[in-house]
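Thread: Newbie trying to understand structure tokens

Hi all, I'm a second-year student working on a class project, and my supervisor (Dr. K.) asked me to get a predicted structure for one chain before our next meeting. I've only ever worked with sequences, so writing a 3D structure as a token string is new to me. If someone could post the tokens and maybe explain what I'm looking at, I'd be very grateful. Here's the chain:
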Amino acid sequence: MPRRKALITANFSRSALERLRAHVDVVYKPWGETRRVLSEAELVEELHSSGADILVVELEHVSREVLEGAELPDLARGLFEFVAMSIRANVELAARVCGRRPGAVKMVGGLTRLRLLKEMLPHVLRSPLVAAARYYSGSLGCAVMAASALGYYRDWWEAAAAMSPLERLSPDEALAAEYQAVYTSWEDFYMRFEVV
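---
Reply by user tm_fold:
Sure, no problem. This is what the structure looks like when written as tokens:
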């Protein structure tokens, strides 16, 4: 099997890059050195010209056009799986610190717009997910407090229930078992590159 190649525009430490280079070829163009963030068209061009099949970004916007233009079939799912695995690691850390797991994980903000992530999370987390149907949580929170203070609702809870519908998703046991194996592998890999 040919070695995979990664295009990296995020800032990595030298030691992390050396460890990564033991596993994949690396084209390293960090924004910290280049002093610029690539446009979507430039990202696609860099992926094509470098022959990279892995993309690691920090500031660049990875849109549908980038995913389709780069012709990386597993990239979108891989990005969402990485985010989902990271969320699970944080939920597990919070559960250890608090001494209990949440009954359901709540999701608000911009990530709620990502349908694939929302559908994946309950299975990765092995937990129910409650996601706000409206992604603009900051301004919505202000509107909830204002509506409550002005007497349109009895309290914040009633205002939030009326103004911010929730979507509830449950894990499928078969998918949760598959993602458990993926998470175990991800966690092992992540721990090896902890200093990145």
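A couple of things are worth pointing out once you decode it. The chain has two domains: 5-73, 99-192. The first strand starts at residue 5 and ends at 8. Feel free to ask follow-ups in this thread.
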